[in-house]
Amino acid sequence: MKILLVEDDESTGLSLVETLSAHQYVVNLANNGETGLTLAQEADYDLILLDVILPKLDGITVCQRLREQGYSRPILLLTAKDSMNDRVLGLDAGADDYVVKPFDLPELLARIRALLRRSQGSAGSVIVWEQLRFDPSTSEVTYNGKTLHLTPKEFCVLELFLCNPKRIFSRSAILDRLWDFADSPGEETVSSHIYSLRQKLKAVGSIDPIETVHGLGYRLRALTPEPSIAPPEESPVASIEPAPPDPQITRQQRAEERLNRSWEKFKPKLAAQMAELEVQLQALFAAPRSTETRQRAEQMAHKLVGAVGVFGWKAGANLLRQIENQLQPDSPPTSQQLEWAIQQVQQIQQQMSQIHSLEQLPSQTPSRPAASPPARPIALSPLSSFSLQGTPLILIVDDDLLLAEQIRMEAILLGWRVEVATDLTVARAMIRKTPPDAIVLDLNFPASQEDGLALLRELTIKLPQIPVLVFTARESLPDRVEVVRLGGCAFLHKPITIPKILQTIVDVLHQNQRLSANRVMAVNPDLSSLSDMTQWLQSRNVEVTSLETTQQFWEVLTTVSPDLLILDWDLPTFSGVELCQVVRHDPQWQTLPILVITEHTDRDSIQQVFAAGANDFIAKPMVEADLVTRIISRLEGMRPTRL
Amino acid sequence: MSSKRVLVIDDEEVVQEVIQGCLEDVAGWETLLASSGREGLQSAAAEQPDVILLDVSMPDMDGVETFHHLMDNATTCTIPVILLTAKIQPADQARFAELGIVGVIAKPFDPMTLAEQVAEALGWNWETID
Q1: Which of A258, A302, A309 sits opposite B25 (nearest CB)?
Q2: What is the CATH number of the domain that holds A537?
Q3: How far is residue A611's CA from residue A242's CA, in Å, rounded to a whole number?
Q4: Contact residues, A window 318-377, toward B, CB-based 8 Å cutoff
C-alpha cells in the first residue's frame, strides 16, 4: 500500500513516515501543497494523508482540485484541534475523513485501514487465498496455519497481488506502487523479491500464487473458485478451511458449529454494545466526574465480559474485564486509563468485525482433542502474579514482528500498553516521543549496519532510568558482559516462553519501583568519585546523599537514615576504620550494610576492613558496573522475598 | 451415565444460549434456562435439576442471594450449585466454599470444556459420557 503524506511540519512528517513504514506502508512525503498535488496527480497512491495548513497551497484546495479532476482515492485530512471550520470545509471539499491533531497513532492507523478497506473492498481485511491467510492488521501471513516470516517488501508484494486479483502488474508498475522515489532501484529488484517470496511460500508447501504473464508482468494465479476475501457474506468458514468430508460428525464438532451460529446471531448485538461502551467511555473522558456515566460504562463492560467470554474469546474478555475494573467506584479511572480503554475497545471492535468463525479467535486452539484434560473447575487467574501498578508502557524492539506481536497480545491482556518497533531508527523515534517504562531489545538486526547494543549504549547515557531487557538468540559471553556493562537489566536468551518474558518485565519494573525507596549515603573526600558514584546510582533510582568530609557524619547519618553506607577507607579527620566501628557500636546501626572503597587490597588490609565491621569492599579505581551491581544486589537482598 | 438436567440461571441471553448449546451438544444434557434469580428459584423447585449453574452478578437478586434462597427452601436445598463468576478472589472462594457451593467456574470459561468442568466439580464420571 502506498501513501502520500503531505505535511510541512518536519518532525510530525518524519515520525509519521516512520510509523507508517513500520506498518508496511510505502510513504512519500511532500512538504507543501503544490508538491503534494503534483505527486498525487502523477503517481499511483492508495491513500493521501493531507495536512490542512500548508505552504504554497493549502490542504483544502489540494483536496478540491484533486476531486475536480476526478481523483477517486481516499483522502484523510489532518486538522488542527479547534478548527471545526476546517473539518467542515475539508469534508465538503471531498475529503473522506479527518483526524484531529495531535492524533493518536493507533486511531490514525485504524482510520487509514478503514478508508483503504472502503476504497478497495478488501485492504485491511483478512484475505484468504487457497490455504494462504493474509492479515494486514497484524502483518501476519500463514499458510495452512504455518507462519511465514516475510520481509516488509515481500509482505507488500504479496498484498498487492492479493488485493488486486485480476490485475497484471509490470515490474515497473510494482516499483511505482511499492518503492519510494528516493530509493527506487532497478526492475531486477522486483524480480528478486518475487523470487524470495516464492521460495518462502514453496517452503511451507504453498502452490505459487504469483503467475508470470510472459512479456507483461505478474498477476495473482486464478483459483477456482475465485480467491475469497474475508469478510464474504456467505460461508466464511469454508473459505478458510474447506469442510472435511468426514461422515461422522462428532458431538464436539456439532457443538462448535452451533457455537459459530450463535456467534453470528449475537455479533450485531455485541457490536452495538461495544459501540455503546465506547460512547460511554468517550463521555466519561469528557466528564470524568460523572458517576452515572461511569456506572453505565461499568455495567456495559461487565455485560460484555460475560458475552464475549462465553464464546471462548479469552483475550477480548480479559481486556474488557480490565476495563471494567478500571471503572470501579473506589478508584475512578485516570484520563490515561480511559484513553487506553477507548483504544482497546476500538481494537476489540475491529477484531470482532473480522471474526466470522470462532476458529479465527486469537489464541484459540484450532482443534480441541476430545481427550484434552479439563480445566480445573476452580482456577485462579494465572495473570494475577503479573500485576503491576498503573498501565506501564513497554517498547519491544525486535525485527521478528511475529514474536513481538505475540508478546504484545499477551501483554495487552495484562493491561500494559505495548509498542513494537521493528528497527532501531523507529525505536529511537518512539523513545524520543514517549519514553517507555521498559524496553525489550533484540540485539540482531540483519537489515541494519548496527545492532541492539548501539541503542543500549545510547540509552545508558541518555535515559539510564529506563530499564532495558536484552533478548537475543546470540549466545556469547562477551555479549552478556557487554550488556551488563552497559547497564542492561536482564539478559534473556531466545527461544524463551512469553510468560517468562512478561515475568521478567514485571520483576524489572517492580525492582525499579521498589528501588526508589532505597537510600544510600556515600562518604568520599574525592569530589569526582563522589559525583560519578552519585550519577551511576541515581540513574538506577537509588537516592544518594553524598558527604565530602566526616565533620557532619553522624548528623547526616541519623537524619538520612540510609539503607546502605559507602565509606572511603582513607578519610581525613576520622578514618574509615573508625567510622565503621562507630556505626557498628550503635545498636540501631548494627545491621546497616557498609561497603568500603579502598585502594589497599593486600590481605591484611582487607582483613582489617572486615574486622571493622564492613560487609564488603570495592577496590579502587571504581568500575561502574562493579559498584552498581554490588550495591543493587545488596539493597535487593534486604527486601522482602519476591512473589 | 444417564442424561443430566442442568438449570442455567443467567441474565444474559447470549450466555444462556451458548451454555445451552454446549451442554446439549457436547454432553447431551438437557438444559433449562432462567433469566433471573427469581425465575431460577421457581424453576429449580418445579424441575428439580441435577445441578444449577448460577451467575453471580445479576440485577435485582444476585447469585449469592439466589443461592441463599435455594438453600432456605427444602425442595431445592439439596441441588448442587456451581457459581459462574468473573470476579474470583481467594477470599471469595473460601466464602463460597463455606456457604456450601460445590464449585466455582471462572468466567471467561472455554465453552467447549464447560460440561467437563461441571462434571469434574460434581465428581461425575466424564469418561463414560461418550
Answers
A1: A258
A2: 3.40.50.2300
A3: 79
A4: 318, 321, 324, 368, 370, 372, 374-377
In chain A, which residue's Cα lies nearest the Cα of B108? A309
Least Cα separation, residue A132 to chain B (angstroms)? 27
Interface membership of B35 toward A (CB under 8 Å): no
**Mean pLDDT, rounded, of chain A:** 78
Judge if A139 and A231 occupy the same domain: yes
Q: Domains of chain B (ranges plus CATH)? A: 5-119 (3.40.50.2300)
Are A398 and A312 members of one domain? no
Asked whether the bond before A231 is cis by omega within 30 degrees of 0, the reply is yes
Task: State which of A240, A275, A300 marks the end of a domain.
Answer: A240
Interface ipTM above 0.90: no
* pLDDT on residue A328: 82
- CB of B32 within 8 Å of any CB in chain A? no
Is residue A308 less than 8 Å (CB to CB) from chain B? yes
Q: Search chain B and give the residue with CA nearest A260.
A: B18
CA distances from A305 to A15, A344, A346, A414, A588 (A): 36, 13, 15, 15, 53
What's the pLDDT band for A237 if we cut at 50, 70, 90? very low
A258-304: pLDDT as tens digits: 888 888 888 888 888 898 898 889 888 888 888 888 988 988 898 88
Q: How far apart are CA A486 and CA A456, in angstroms?
A: 7
Higher-pLDDT residue of A643, B120:
B120
Yes or no, beta carbons of A374 and B55 under 8 Å apart: no
In which domain, by residue range, is A94 found? 2-120
Tell me the sheet residues that pair with A213.
A217
CB nearest to A306's CB, from B86, B105, B112: B86
- Among candidate residues A144, A131, A130, A135, the one with its CA nearest the CA of residue A223: A130
Chain A neighbors of B112, CB-CB under 8 A: 252, 255-256, 259, 312, 368
Mean pLDDT highest for which of A359-363, A527-531, B62-66? B62-66
Segment A246-263 mean pLDDT: 71
Q: Prior bond to B108 cis, omega within 30?
A: yes
Q: Is the pLDDT of residue A232 over 60?
A: no
In A527-627, the DSSP E strands lie at 543-547, 564-568, 594-598, 616-619
Same-domain check for residues A535 and A633: yes
Which residue among B90, B107, B120 sits closest to A306, beta carbon to beta carbon? B107
Among A256, A307, A372, the residue with its CB nearest the CB of B15 is: A307
